[in-house]
C-alpha cells in the first residue's frame, strides 16, 4: 500500500537540488559561514519581497519572537495579549521576556484571534498584542493597531500571504523545513519598517554588538547562518508559485466533495494554506481510518495554552475537532481523491449511513 505523507518537502526542493548543491559548494569554498554575503543579500531580498524596509535573519522562529519582544522592550510586569490556539512558542517567547501572556479567544470560523475579545483584554499593563496568522490565513491586524499598542505579527505560517507584515509594528517568520518558505534546517526572520526597531533587533541578534568588540546591549547569539541564507535565496523566488499550488490543492479537495463530509477551512484570496486543517466531531474515527489506509494526518493545539478550562470555549472546541490532511505544492490529484474516499468511508461508518 502506497503511503501519503502529510507534507512532501522533497517534492518542492528536488528540482532545485543541483542549485542547492552548487550553493553548498560555494559557501564551503568561501569559508564564510557566519554573516557572509548570502546572509546580507537574503535580508535585502526578503525585505523587498515582503515590502518592508528591513529584514533581519535569525536562528529560528522562536528566537525571532523573543528578539522582537525585546526590541519592543517587553519585560517583567508587562502583559502581552495572544491567542491560546497557537503553537507553544508564541506564549513561550512572552514568558522568556519575563512578561505574562494574556490569552484571548479565537474566531471559530477563521481560528484567528477574536479582535473584540483581544480589545476587551487590554489593561494598563498591556505592552503588546501578538496576533497569529494561523495555518496561512492572514488576519487583518489594523483594528488591533488602532488600539494604540505595538502589534507583533506572528507570521511563522504565512510567508507570502498578501499583506503580511504591512500593518503591525514588527513581524516574525519561521523557516522550519515544512513552512511555505523553508530552509534545510532552522531559520527565522524579523521584519519591520521602523528603523529604530530594526537596528535594535540587529544588535540583539549579535550579542548586542555591531562589530563584536563594542557591546551596546545584552543580546543573544541568534543569526541565520550563511548556508541556510544561500538556500533561502534559491527558494524565495519559488514561494509565490508554491503558494498558488497550495491554493489549487485546497480547491481540489473542495471540488472532490470533502466539504460534504467535514468542515473545510474557509477560503479567502490571501490564504496560503501552510496546513489544510479541517474540523469534525468524528475526527478520531476519521484519523483512524486514514492511518489504516496509510494516509498521514495530524492534530494541532489539542491542549490550548490557556490555564483555565472553559474560559475560551471556541478555542477548546477547535482543539477538539481540528485535524490536517495531506497538502503540499504539487500533491497528486489521485492522492487527494484517495484521501477523500477514505474520509467518506469513515464518516459513513461512524454516522451509520
What report would you give on this structure?
- This protein is of the alpha/beta class and 353 residues long.
- Helices cover 39% and strands 11% of the residues.
- The protein contains 13 helices and nine strands.
- It has helices at 9-13, 17-30, 37-50, 61-71, 88-96, 115-120, 142-145, 195-204, 226-235, 239-255, 283-292, 313-321, 333-351, and strands spanning 54-58, 79-83, 100-104, 126-129, 152-154, 170-174, 188-192, 276-279, 322-325.
- The strands form three sheets. Strands 1-7-6-5 form a four-stranded mixed sheet. It has a three-stranded parallel sheet with strand order 3-2-4, with helices on one face.
- Helix 2 (17-30) packs antiparallel against helix 9, helix 3 runs parallel beside helix 9 (226-235) and helix 4 crosses helix 5.
- The chain is globular and about 65 Å long.
- The relative contact order is 0.16.
- The model has no long low-confidence stretch (mean pLDDT 94).
